[in-house]
Every structure is written in C-alpha cells, then in structure tokens.
Amino acid sequence: MFIDLLAQFLPLAATDEAGVLTSLATQTWQWGLVALGIGLVIFVHELGHFVAAKSFGVKCEKFYVGFDVPIQIGPIKFPRTLGKFQYGETEYGIGIIPLGGYVKMLGQDDDPRKAEEEAKRIRMKEDAAEADEEGDDTAPEKLDPRSFPAKAVWQRMIIISAGVVMNLITGVLFAAIAYGYGVTYNPSIIGGVTPGGPAWQAGIEPGGQVVSVGGLSDDQMHFREMRMAILTEGLDNPEKPISLAIRYDEGIRKYNLKTASHPENADVRMIGIVSPTSLEFSSKTVAMPGSIAATVLSGEDAGSKIVAYDGKKINNDLIVPSTPFFNYLYSNPTKTISLTLERVDGSEHQVDLPPQQAKMLGARWAISPITGLVDEGVAAKAGIEVGDVITAINGDTEIDAYKLPLELISSNEPVTMTLRRGEGSEARTIEVELAPQAALQTHAPDSQISGEIAINRFGFSYRPLPVVASVLPDLLAGDGSDPMLELQPGDEIQEVRLITPDAELMPPLQDAEFEPLVAQLREGWEKDGPTPWGSLIETIQYLPEGTQLQVLATRSPKGRVVETQVTVQQDDRVWFERGLGLTASESIQRASSVTDALSLGLREAERRLRDVFRFLRMATQGRVKMRHVGGPLAIMDLAKQEAERGISPQLLFLTMLSMNLAILNFLPIPALDGGHMMFLIAEAIRGKKLNEQLEMRLTMAGVLMILLLMVVVFANDILRLL
C-alpha cells in the first residue's frame, strides 16, 4: 500500500582540484545521508505493514521503497527500479520514483483500475465452478485464505495501522538516540528585542531566559520551539495575547503580549525577541571583510573568546554572560574598546577595537513620526504619542534618522524635545523634557527586520525614511549645472541599483560570500518593496568606498523624476556595528541515561505531533496558505541542511518527518492508510463490505486529490527556487 503520496507534504534559510574533489565528496556524502534517512523512514513504515501482514498469513508479493512505475518519454524508456531481487514469495526493490513506498499484498491494490482484476485473482476457482454447476448464485464467495480481503476486519485494521505505529515508535527512538548523542541548540534566552516590536513596547529586557510561552513550558526550552509556539499561537489567535514567563537572575517576570505581523511576511507572527550572540569568535570568519574588526583581528584569533573588555571580566555566572559586554559595546559607539581574548591554545591576547566609521551616499535621511513607545517608558510618561513628529532636540532643528541615536543612546542628561502633533490647521507644537533612564542596549538601535530605530533610554522608536533631509554636495554626482542630476532636500528615493560592472567591482564584492548582496543590489531596492530603507543603509556599510549606485527619486510638488549617480563614501560619523565575527549562543542537551533519553524522545515526538495537528486545524480554518506547504524538494532541502549540521539534527529531522508521515498518512482520504481504515470501520459496522464500485470511485477521487496536491506543492517548491 502507498506510504501515501500525501505524506510528502509537510507543514512548514575551493578553487583548486583537491578542494573541488573534497567538496564533491562532502556533498555526495551529505546527499547520501539524506537519501538514507528519508528512505529509512519510508522503509520502517512499510516494514510495519509487511510484518503485520506476514503475521496473519497474508501473501506479500512486493516490498518496495519508491514506486516502480513505467516511465517513457518519447522513444526513451526508463528503468522501473534502481534494483530488485526475489526472496521467497516476495519481490524486494527500490522504485525509480522516490515519493514513498508500498507493500503489495495478494488481493489488495491501491490502483482503482486494477481493483476488479485483483478481486477475480483471489476467488477460489474450484468453489466457484461448483457453484456454477449447481446453479447456486447465492453461495457465499470464498476467497484465497492468504489474500488480504480474506482476513477478519480486526486483522486488516492491524495491518493497515501497523505502518503508522512503526513511524510513531521509530520517531521516538530517533529523538532518543539524538539526545543520547547530545543535541546542540540555541537556548530561548533573550539577546535583544526588535526595536518597536511587541517585546520592546512591553519593556522586556535582554538577559533573561524564556521558560514558558503559551502552553509550552520547559526549563531548557529551545529558541526554535519558542519561536514555533509564538508563530502558531499568533496564527491561531492573532488577537489573543500570548503568555510569556522569563527567568532573570533575580527571578521570574511574566508578560502577556499580542503578536505582530512580520514586516516582510504578514502571515508570520512575531513578538520581536532576538536570540543572543556568544562571546566566541567563529572558527572560519573572525570579522566581516572591510570592517574595523578585520584590521585588528587575525586568523590566530579564530575560535577565541572574549574574557574581558576595558578591564571588566566576563561574568559567566549570569544567565546570559554576553549581555553586559554588548550593552557596553553599543552604548559607546565612539569609544575605542580594549578586548582581552583567550585563544584556543589557552593564551590571552589583547586588541584595541576602534569605532567603525560609517559610510553614506552623500545625504542625510528624514525620520518618520513616532512609531512606538515603551509601556511606562520615559517618552510615554512625558505624554508623547505615536504619530508625533520630532522637529527639534534641544533647539536643534537639523534632525536626521541616524544622528538621533548617536546623540541620545548614551546620554545621561535630560533633553528638551519639540514635537508637532496633528496635521494642517489642527497641528500644534508641544515641548517636553525627557530624563533618560537606565536601559540595556544589547543590539544596534536600528532593526533590519522592522526597519525601525529605537532609543531605549528614552523609550521611543521611529523609522528612517527614503526622503532626503539634507545633502552634502561634495559627495553627490553632478557639477551643480543641472539640478536634475543632484539630490535635493525633500526628494523621495524610489529605487537604488548597483551599476558598477562586475569586472570593476572592488575586490571584497568579488568574494563568493558577497554574491547574494551583489545580486540583490543588481535587482535594485524599490521604495514599495518588502525591504525597509534601514536595511539598504545597513547594506551600504558593507560596500567598499567608490562603489557606484544609480538613484531614482521623485521631487515635489509635481513628482518630477530625478536620476543621478552616487558614490559610497566614508562618513564623518560612526556606525554601531564593528564587524565582530561572533557565533550564536549555543547549549547542548544530553540525556543522562537510557530512561532520560526515552523520556526526551517521547517529549520531542509529542511536540512534533502537536505541531502537525495544529497545522491541520489551522489549514482547515484557512489560517495557513497553500504556498506555505512544502513538497518533496523542500523536504530534501531541509533534510540536507540538517545533515550538514550533524547526526543529532538529522535524527530530530527524521523524528519530525516520522510524525508527519504518521498523521498525514492516517487522514481519512481514500488511497491512504486512513482511507482504508475508514472502509474497514464501515465494514465492521455494517457487517459486510462496502459496494466495490463505490469503494473504487472513492479511491479514484482520493488519488485525484493527492495528485492535485502534488502539483501544488511541486509548484511551490519550484517557485521557491526561482
């Protein structure tokens, strides 16, 4: 029987010859692991059917992983199998189409076109002949005792459900083995909060660990589990707040937060919690090319870790030891910071990390009205409202988006802020004095995700706009003779595109790691695209000086189009990011005994089952779009990613796959195991089989439904690749 095509649809980131050969061998090994893993899940499912059928004396004619269907394109005929052999009465093989597997039992065939022929095969010829001679049309039909239909209903139910049971059991075992090895994971600790997001507005501070979210509680919660719980809870009940419990060094804090839509994908829900970065440098890239960190760090610092900064030792007893360091780093963007590194050989090494000079396009950028306020924060208490427009700080009316955080992020002095509230004749000016309060700044104040900039000490956020606030003429293209070749205050940027030819790109941009960045810039940033303006400004920081960009803008009041070229130049201001190549914070969860491993395996399997049931429920309610469903190509891609990470991630992936196969395979759709079970339940209730013609028509409808789903998910997979 089919492992059932629907089970493929799951709810759902060296140039020399020796190097090429090594890479090829690695890729071959990884794809081999993928094929072995997915094949193993299919094999154990079919093994369940096979063993149960054999136990009840059913003749099994074929046992296949993959489908051995004939394929012909014009005159070319492809082999039906990758290999097969006969042992006893059963043919074992690997089919050419890797979309499942099947066990062919005597008297049972999921192809409705062959159902009638299969039914004739198993009728007892001698008994049928006797009935004909006696003219007895009412004589009970006798079937081959080794055929599937000849077995009692309860026996057939066991045979049909055995595949699902095997997937459930092996899913638990996969996870148990993974935890026996040790599972590396990103803990659900708060490295930072997204500016303007729900967590930021609620005043959630970095440095704590989420131990409960919604209905999920775990002292060793994985960040992935937390994120999935938030995503699914948010999709299920977008207007209902999610309960959150966070353990800090001084105790537990509880919150209730409403999720927000992801800026780039409205179907994704988030609360704006960012996973932490460790104090350990990557073993591959210790610094971003072209950054200030790349000038002071070397290959000898690969794998080293920061143990002190400006004479302050890292406190490893904290839940998040890196929190004080990052708060110091981002609160002092103009300061040279001394870092003490402990290298992999145990020796200590000290480097001085200067500020990172910013890069610009010869213009300053306007700011939006206030977009967010921290609950009970300084700005909210002073009476500032969302929608207010900042017009002056301490009397200075030259306001631009990237000047504010540099002035205010480490300010300890009160500031006087002038704002405009309302529009047109109803507009009025208000003035407030804000006294800063202590607030952790463990991330740069700008967010590439939301596009917002947050001043934590004063508790407000805004967006940088693609609108020119002021210009620095010496850095713009044009000689001043044609104003249509130069940007002016008030111009609104519509598109920015990289125009430097590939052959003339600066050496850093010719590196393979910059290929996605270059491709994105070639395609162009568009004002109404999904990527916020702040992300483009962040991207510019990685471009070498002298890189040429084409800019299209519109000029009020008539909306005239301005086309010009700008050159990436060094700014006299600093940038918050200094290019440190630090790795994500990770922990290892390892079972202490066989019993503990099985317990963790059961927990993992239960969670994956719950994910599938929740997905199906939301899908039936229309809360999950079909474009979010992955097909075989998506499964293979995800499997390869997990195989690259190691044996434990791959085993956990197989647990997830097993749970998906078990549940989706048991849906009450004819041609799937669940459809067969529905027919058997009906037979048990009625005391006789369903009408064969009705069963055949329902099976055909089920096959067509599955084929339609296959077309959709294959299309989704292909569109993701384009």
Automatic annotation (TrEMBL):
Main location: membrane
Region annotation Disordered: where it falls in the sequence: 114-145
Positions with biased composition (Acidic residues): 129-138
Cellular compartments annotated: Membrane
GO terms, biological process: proteolysis
Record SMART domains: PDZ
Record protein name field: Metalloproteinase
Organism the protein comes from: Rhodopirellula maiorica SM1
Lineage of source species: Bacteria, Pseudomonadati, Planctomycetota, Planctomycetia, Pirellulales
